[in-house]
Design a protein that fits this description.
The complex is a heterodimer. Helix content of chain A is 52%, strand content 17%. By secondary structure, chain A is of the alpha+beta class. By secondary structure, chain B is mainly alpha-helical. In chain B, strands 1-2 form a two-stranded antiparallel ribbon. Chain B has a two-stranded antiparallel ribbon with strand order 3-4. In chain B, a hairpin with a 2-residue loop joins strand 3 and strand 4. Classes of the chains: A alpha+beta, B mainly alpha.
């Protein structure tokens, strides 16, 4: 995976992020984040007041400046977190931008035009609907659809997969992507992307974070954080009035310190970094999200529709067993099956060879003077004619029966029926006019998928297998793979109906597809993942595109979606729980002048009112920067039930959020006293 | 030990009665009893209302507001004109405009803050046709909204919120009225007066002329408790021997305070067709009530060492003692009732703090009839939102997604308590025209203001006595915060219910976080404490906590 798109290390990104940290102080940008914007306003206010006091020589001016500096640091740390998250994307975008071609292309008047009348046209002038010729060695200028020709194309610039893939006119492999290279032959393309709107352009914008829209839960969380900020504003703004009743005059800088420590700066400062890092993790998995909403929806998925072929099974039927006819020994059958399949390069043929070799315990070579017989659709047989005139054949039951004019013995016939009933495909092997036995071909379930589905079930996700097989075959494979349900003899309409039915029950559905006929279902699904190798229609309809064309990727996408939400929720809980300790640090410091008895609230035993307030402010800033790595990495999701997850995260981030600041503030207080800073 | 057994018995009886009542309430509100539906229909049709017409949230909210506004206008007029109206044997004159405003608002919002003294300022007509009527319909309004919100949260998709007029009528006719009649008869039997004759003029033992006020008290007291109103017939409320003559009457009233609010938890569970959801909310509320009660009981029975050995009996009726007074105080502040059988002003500082916290979190520990439940549901939304994020799913409550709209509305609902208590309270504790109300110096005087504004915003109605509530500044400001505390909660919560009722209900899977069981109860309690109570930590530190620390140091206020 991901050998094309380099991951910059945090150390490389830090210098650029540091610059961005200060650029982001621009109030227009800050205003997008209400919590951090408010912090900056308070910091500005306390700084001005501190400078005034220092200028006029008032007592406490330097203390106020010290507090102000830490308030500013809180803002800067939040900016740094965001810049760091964006920096990764930017580095990736630069790599991608390097593949964007400049120069000229060979434009044709129409799809059938002669090649020698091609006009050299600047790439930037290419419009959707025009036709271009690309030949071996050319970089495909922008997204398009093959109209003529077959070519092998190296798509490593996008997918990281270095083996070239075939692109041809007609069918499901006609879509080409700008930035990939034609390795051999030629294609006539119809351009499908407007200038600047190609897949590569979108991908660059996406990884850079330029197009990042807030996801629905992020918006809801932002509102909650803004609401909390407003409530704490009421708390702090009204405090001087209440304190004056006790004859107490609280300095503005102390009120500012209390306010900033109470509002959820930790999660407020890390929120956008978490979002950007989440998208970035998807990019690392080689998945492009066309909207943030889809990523979040992936975390909510209740039902996963998976194509059988390629996802659950290898997609090729494989020899599972050889069954000799009565009176034939296994070695004879295995040898005949081996030889008959030697020249058969299909996966099925190779699997028979594998099976027979295992049974015989030795290799066989192509005998001298023998002639391979190719499979044809008419005969539905393939095999080998030996030098002595014996013809070894393997093929469909009726074809072998017609060839040999024999019917299988009753015992064998029973076996054949059993194979068909179990969802497998039976083949017969013959030598001359004798039926030697049967081969049981079956769809082999990929190793590990069973465990995968069990994990999904633990997460509360139901898996439905989609297959074109008959219900019998489908049921057999479904049972073997451990999916919860299956849809046999599936047509695109049935898929669409299934999705709608699931959705009407309030469930979110994810599916992946590649063909044009998947497009309606992809559009209907809450999370539609199109394979990059698929048709433009499918890619247009989906909201996620998997560059590796690996359907099992859906599971990773679900995990990323969940991690995104868990990171936000856990840090919010942590941030809110922190307030308890901060109250216990600042309130006694504020009020002890009026009511000395309130010193009992100083349960941390902080050295002085000054050091208490300063410690709380410093802790507030340091915890933000300390949590940046966690925000970028995301809180780990391990598949388990919601109740288990909640208990764990509530313990770590809820209880932790209550306790950690007590320890942290005390430690900072001790350090401040030791350094004579307060 | 006896104390513990008594408490356990009290709560066991309360829970059993509430469980039974919830079954009846469900039948009433789901119109399952043909005979009652037939009567409803006649009553409603005669008022031109089609009880089957479903309302959306906005229509429901408009109906509540219009009905309460009409109630306000009538009550205000009655209080101003009582001198010209009949049933005025003691010749009471018109109430002043600001006091009439305060009283009218107080009764339509189910607060029953009494800046007046009933026996000295109200005619029998004002008491019966004015206050007692509002005691019924303000409670019924709250219950109607509560039921509408339950329907929105748990009913079928696009099922509507019901019909306000039908819900209000049913709550009055079939729940409040029968219960009140039963309780009034019992109280009268215990010795509470119920008469239309004027005050008794007599010569006391000392030979002095004495006026003993009386009146139609039993009926008003019954509904003041059942409807979490709290406005007594007499100024000193249920501490008055005519309002609350015996221990039996005391227990009966104390049970009535919590009866309907507790039943609402179970009603929620049974209407949601998932009883354990109701038990979870009951559990969270119950634990908080018991924890608060434990604190109050501890401080009240331990007493004030600087005043001598024994329980704190200052401001308490000797008939009831520290235990029954503690139980009543916890119940009345938890349940947004506000009637008292002892003077809260004289409670120990930290007991007083618990009473304030019960109100400041928005009266959600059982709370007012209907309003306690819908207030708690706002906390449920935030708790579920955080929990949902922590398990990696868009949060769901009862199968419905909690999204930006619900969170926004919940946050709007949460703003009313800090606005009323902190913002308006800040003016009340600084403006010279407001400060004159304070009776005591130092932190205790501050607690009086804080308690008053917590009580008004929470629509409770109890007070730290001695505080001059009748100052025009306060009657006006408190009238406004009562409106804020009531309707700035009703409107957003109905909007949430409306928005949820349009969403598809998803079945629960292993990925759905369960909103019942100890884990959710813990989370809900933490949400209430951190979001609700923590906001008021600074002011509590300046009031009751400062007073307590000073007391420990030997200083009193």
């Amino acid at each position: 995976m991901s050998n094309s798109i380099p991951t910059a290390s945090l150390r490389d990104l830090a210098p650029a992020a540091l610059r961005q940290t200060f650029v982001k102080l621009d109030p227009r940008g800050l205003a997008r984040n209400p919590v951090i914007f408010t912090t900056a306003v308070v910091a500005l206010m306390t700084t001005i007041l501190a400078l005034r006091d220092i200028g006029s020589g008032t007592v406490g001016g330097w203390q106020a400046l010290h507090i102000s500096i830490w308030l500013w640091l809180c803002v800067l740390f939040a900016n740094f977190a965001e810049a760091l998250a964006e920096g990764r994307g930017k580095a990736r975008a630069d790599t991608l931008r390097a593949t964007k071609t400049k120069g000229y292309v060979k434009r044709l008047e129409g799809p059938q035009s002669e090649f020698d009348v091609a006009l050299l046209t600047p790439i930037d002038d290419l419009q959707a609907g025009q036709f271009v010729l690309v030949e071996a060695g050319d970089i495909i200028p922008t997204d398009g659809e093959a109209m003529r020709g077959v070519a092998s194309v190296n798509e490593s610039a996008i997918t990281g997969e270095s083996a070239p893939v075939i692109r041809e006119a007609g069918g499901d492999r006609s879509s080409v992507t700008g930035g990939t290279t034609v390795v051999s032959d030629w294609l006539v393309l119809r351009i499908t992307a407007e200038p600047g709107k190609s897949f590569m352009d979108r991908m660059i914008a996406l990884v850079e974070g330029a197009e990042r829209q807030k996801t629905p839960n992020e918006i809801a969380l932002n509102i909650l954080l803004a609401g909390l900020t407003l409530i704490f504003l009421f708390v702090v703004v009204t405090l001087p009035a209440f304190a004056s009743f006790a004859g107490l005059n609280i300095p503005v800088v102390v009120l500012g310190a209390l306010f900033v420590t109470l509002i959820p700066t930790t999660i407020g400062g890390l929120l956008s970094a978490i979002g950007i890092a989440g998208m970035d993790r998807l990019v690392k998995f080689n998945v492009i999200a066309k909207s943030g909403r889809a990523v979040e929806a992936a975390g909510d998925v209740d039902t996963l529709l998976l194509d059988k072929t390629g996802t659950i099974t290898f997609g090729n039927r494989m020899a599972d067993a050889l069954i000799p006819a009565p009176g034939v020994d296994m070695a004879t059958l295995a040898e005949a099956a081996y030889l008959a399949s030697l020249a058969d390069e299909t996966p099925e043929g190779r699997s028979i060879v594998e099976k027979a070799r295992a049974l015989l315990g030795r290799d066989l070579a192509l005998p001298e003077g023998s002639t391979p017989v190719e499979f044809t659709a008419q005969t539905r047989l393939s095999g080998l004619d030996l030098a002595d005139g014996t013809s070894l054949r393997k093929g469909a039951i009726d074809a072998v029966v017609r060839l040999t004019t024999q019917i299988p013995a009753p015992a064998l016939a029973q076996e054949i029926d059993a194979i068909a009933r179990s969802g497998g495909t039976p083949l017969l092997v013959s030598s001359g006019y004798t039926i030697l036995g049967a081969v049981h071909l079956k769809d082999v379930v990929k190793p590990g998928v069973r465990e995968r589905f069990a994990e999904l079930r633990a997460m509360g996700i139901r898996t439905v297998m989609i297959t074109g097989d008959n219900p019998l075959t489908a049921a057999a494979i479904a049972a073997e793979a451990g999916v919860d349900d299956f849809l046999a003899e599936a047509t695109p309409e049935m898929k669409l109906d299934l999705i709608k039915r699931e959705q009407s029950g309030g469930r979110l559905v994810a599916m992946c597809g590649d063909g044009s006929n998947d497009a309606p279902a992809l559009a209907q699904a809450d999370v539609g993942v199109a394979m990059n190798a698929g048709t433009p229609a499918a890619k247009e309809a989906a909201n996620l595109i998997d560059l590796d064309s690996d359907p099992t990727k859906l599971i990773e996408i679900v995990m990323v979606g969940k991690e995104l939400l868990i990171s936000r929720g856990s840090l919010t809980t942590f941030s809110i729980a922190n307030d308890v300790a901060k109250y216990f640090a600042i309130l006694p410091a504020m009020f002890v002048g009026a009511y000395p008895g309130l010193a009992v609230l100083n349960i941390m035993g902080l050295a002085s009112p000054n050091s208490a307030i300063l410690s709380a402010v410093i802790f507030n800033a340091l915890i933000l920067i300390a949590l940046v790595p966690l925000a970028l990495r995301g809180v780990k999701y391990t598949p388990s039930s919601a109740a288990v997850l909640l208990r764990r995260n509530l313990l770590i981030y809820g209880l932790g959020g209550l306790i950690v600041p007590f320890i942290g503030i005390k430690a900072i207080d001790l350090a401040l006293v030791a350094l004579h800073l307060a | 030990m006896m104390t513990l057994i008594s408490y356990i018995l009290y709560f066991a009886v309360l829970t059993a009665l509430a469980l039974g009542l919830a079954v009846w309430m469900q039948r009433v509100f789901e119109a399952r009893i043909p005979a009652l539906v037939w009567v409803d229909r006649i009553v409603l049709r005669s008022a031109g209302v089609d009880p089957d017409r479903q309302m959306n949230w906005a229509a429901y909210a408009m109906a509540v507001l219009a009905f309460n506004l009409a109630g306000f206008v009538v009550l205000y007029a009655l209080l101003r004109l009582q001198g010209y109206l009949p049933l005025n044997p003691d010749g009471m004159g018109a109430m002043s405009p600001d006091l009439a405003f305060n009283t009218a608002v107080s009764f339509i919002t189910n607060t029953n803050w009494q800046a007046y003294s009933g026996e000295a300022q109200l005619s029998y007509l004002s008491q019966m046709a004015g206050l007692t009527v509002q005691n019924f319909v303000s409670a019924a309004s709250g219950m109607a909204v509560g039921v509408a919100v339950i329907r929105g949260f748990s009913g079928p998709k696009d099922g509507g919120l019901g019909n306000f007029w039908a819900d209000m009528t049913r709550a009055t006719l079939w729940i409040l009225l029968p219960l009140s009649i039963a309780l009034a008869l019992y109280l009268a039997a215990q010795g509470v007066p119920q008469t239309l004759l004027g005050a008794v003029h007599t010569t006391g033992l000392e030979g002095a002329e004495q006026i003993i006020p009386r009146g139609p008290a039993a009926t008003q007291i019954a509904i003041k408790q059942l409807g979490t109103n709290g406005g007594g017939f007499f100024g000193v409320n249920s501490a008055h021997p005519f309002e609350n003559p015996t221990i039996a009457s005391d227990l009966a009233q104390c049970l009535s305070i919590l009866l309907i609010p507790v039943a609402f938890c179970f009603l929620f569970g049974s209407m949601a067709r998932e009883r354990r959801q109701g038990w979870a909310i009951f559990g969270a509320m119950g634990i908080m009530l018991l924890a608060g009660l434990a604190v109050i009981h501890f401080y009240e029975t331990a007493g004030n060492p600087s005043l001598g050995i024994g329980a704190n009996m200052e401001g308490k009726e000797a008939r009831f003692g520290a235990m029954l007074s503690s139980l009543w105080a916890a119940s009345t502040t938890a349940a947004s009732n506000g009637s008292v059988n002892a003077m809260h002003d004289s409670f120990m500082p930290l007991s007083g703090m618990v009473l304030m916290v019960f109100m400041q979190i928005g009266e959600v520990i059982f709370g007012g009839v209907g309003s306690g439940l819908y207030g708690m549901l706002l906390y449920c939304i935030i708790a579920v939102f955080l929990a949902g994020l922590m398990v990696g799913r868009t949060p769901e409550y009862l199968g419905r997604k909690i999204e930006a709209r619900e969170v926004t509305l919940a946050v709007v609902g949460f703003l009313s308590m800090p606005l009323g208590i902190l913002v308006v309270g800040a003016f009340a504790s600084t403006l010279p025209s407001a400060l004159a109300a304070i009776q005591d110096p130092g932190p205790h005087g501050f607690s009086e203001v804080l308690y008053a504004y917590s009580s008004a915003t929470g629509n409770n109605g109890s007070a730290f006595g001695g505080w001059g509530a009748s100052l025009p500044w306060h009657t006006t400001a408190m009238g406004l915060v009562m409106i804020l505390g009531r309707y700035a909660m009703i409107i957003p919560v109905l909007a949430i219910a409306g928005s949820l009722s349009r969403k598809t209900k998803a079945e629960a899977t292993a990925g759905t976080f369960p909103t019942h069981g100890p884990l959710f109860v813990t989370l809900l309690i933490l949400t209430v404490l951190i979001l609700g109570a923590l906001t008021f930590f600074p002011v509590l530190a300046l009031g009751p906590i400062a007073e307590e620390t000073a007391r420990v140091a030997g200083q009193s206020f």
